Amino acid sequence: MSLRLPGIGPQTEIKLQKLGILSPRDLLYHFPSRYIDFSHFTAISQIRPDVNITVSGQIIHLQNIFTRSHKNFQKIIIKDSTGQVELLWFNQPYLIKNFKLGDTWAFAGTATLYKNKLTIFSPEYGQFNTGKIIPVYPETKGLGSRWFRKNISLNLNTFLKESVETLPQNILTQYKLLPILPSLSQIHFPQNATMLFQSRTRLAIDEILSLQSLSYLQRQAFLNLKPKFVLKNYSTTQLINSLPFKLTDSQIQAWQEIKADLLSPNKVTNRLLCGDVGSGKTIVALLSAYLTSLNQHQTLILAPTEILAQQHFQTFQKYLPKFPLYLLTAHSKIPAKIPKNAIIVATHAAIFQKDKFLKGSALLIIDEQHKFGVKQRSFLNSDHPIHTLSLTATPIPRTISLTLLGNLDISFLKNPPKNRQKIKTFLVPNPKITACYQWLEEQIKTQKTQAFIVCPFIEESESAVTIKSAKKEFDNLQKVFPKLNLALIHGKTESKARAKILADFAQNKINILVTTPIIEVGIDYPNATTIIIQSADRFGLSQLHQLRGRVGRGEQQSYCYFFTENQNETALKRLEYLSKTNDGFKIAEFDLKTRGPGETFSTLQHGFPSLKIADLSDVKLIELSQKILQTIISKSPDFDLKKLIQNQNYDQQIATHLN
Ligand code: ADP
Ligand code: MG
Predict the structure, then answer these.
(1) Model confidence, pTM
(2) Which of 210, 308, 607, 625 could be stapled to 648 by a disulfide with Cβ–Cβ 3.0 to 4.6 Å?
(3) DSSP one-letter code for 295
(4) Strand-pair partners of 84
(5) Which spans in 549-641 are helix H?
(6) Residue 546: pLDDT band by 50, 70, 90 thresholds?
């Protein structure tokens, strides 16, 4: 495709492609990343360090300085009626040519205290008194903000002729939204801060609204499906009374919600059960499988790892001893013919090859849903509608459920079982590591408790490199703890050997289990009360929270220690935050703010939208947008919501979900 715009040749087009700009529309939607405000000046005497300001002054000194080490920098001093300030740039010898002594210019930037003097490094500059808010664009080599300012302004009117208003007039009026044309022009060349704010709000609403419309349409399509299996109600009291504990209120409520789905004649269940680590999701899944089995239908439970599949299988055996239970993994086969009320626990790898078990099931339970890749999940979206219950420990902030997950029903397990103590968490500075190991040895000897030490992962999927480094660390640790019994497991540990190690660990024959992050999901050993996580900075916060959830499962006080070599301030802040917070929900919100939604929630949904303006942690914006959608649906039932989606340029992956 060619941009076919005056002044844009093939060379420029190649550069634009690097920024994802392939069409005139893309150029129009290439929004500034920030602005320099030349409409409002700070007096030089009022400049404070670390505050972003714009000043205007007369140039009283201009100098290109070359150092002996072949570096050069540029120095300008300006003055106004209140004082003077120094400006410094590096390696831009041509820059000085733009200025003349005695001229007045405006400069924007942040002042720093440098050699006891306030200095503004590499400020942006503009003609005196432009009085304007100047856009700064995401740039690429050879195409700077100046280029975008010029070319967007040249073509703006042509672009706008091709743009149409997507929102109904009554919505614009009711919600006092700026229409699309002025929004698109003000976002590039704002008249003032108010107009800029209004245009940003409008364009952000468009982005969120399109996601919400997409979820809404998907949900409508889903609601039109008829379930192949409608279940009848059977009493579950007997099972509930046989449990060694009382269900929490949240567990009871979640189970009621799921049961209502399963019994509904017109609805295919598509529910996500969210609950922090240790909140007791397994029992709720068990109840669902139980009801399905009483109805003489098959249940398939998928776990992301073999360890977890084995553990679930054992749990189910304990609570449902008389039921036809099967374990299907790479190492355990099941007969081709099984009773129609079978409950199969499988790893996804195994089911990938034997999808007849998927097809024969009335209920599909996906544990640790966030661990499954997009490909695996689209495989699970089989052609006939199956009741699906997904379990996840990823806490879902309201903003995310209102935008990306509107197509799902969600149940939350808000409160953990009562008997839990808060896990004490510490960030351990390098010099204290030895002391920490000594403390651990004491604990193990005196309290008879056990520990996990998690080795850093090198790559996301467990590779040879990760395993090699884990083995090396294991050798080290054996030297650190010569009197204790240590064992190592990783993703490639042979299934039999691993089962033996885990059985020994369960019987406290192993003091410290050294592992790669494969233990992250699901496993349950209440006597393990300490977890040490090496290179903790490499993990996402939610993942660290999951790892930490491997301890604190019994009545005893538990401990979590983070080691890190990273001295980066942000990295340390994130870890410190985690050591103060035990609430998975807050942690996810923090992660959302600091790392962005793509990192935190990409696993929950197919494809992830890259938003240009809207912020997925902005509660107000997202609730407003949701209200607008509701108004459109109720007041303009004939309005085609697809319009709101097609106007946004989502990648193919998301677009295909429209059909
Ligand atoms: P998760 O939500 O992380 O999957 P699990 O289902 O593995 O949590 O439950 C964690 C532990 O809590 C298990 O040992 C389980 O037996 C126990 N548990 C579950 N529900 C309750 C409850 N209502 N009261 C006490 N303990 C419970
Ligand atoms: Mg679990």
Answers:
(1) 0.72
(2) 210
(3) T
(4) 79
(5) 569-580, 584-595, 597-601, 619-635
(6) confident
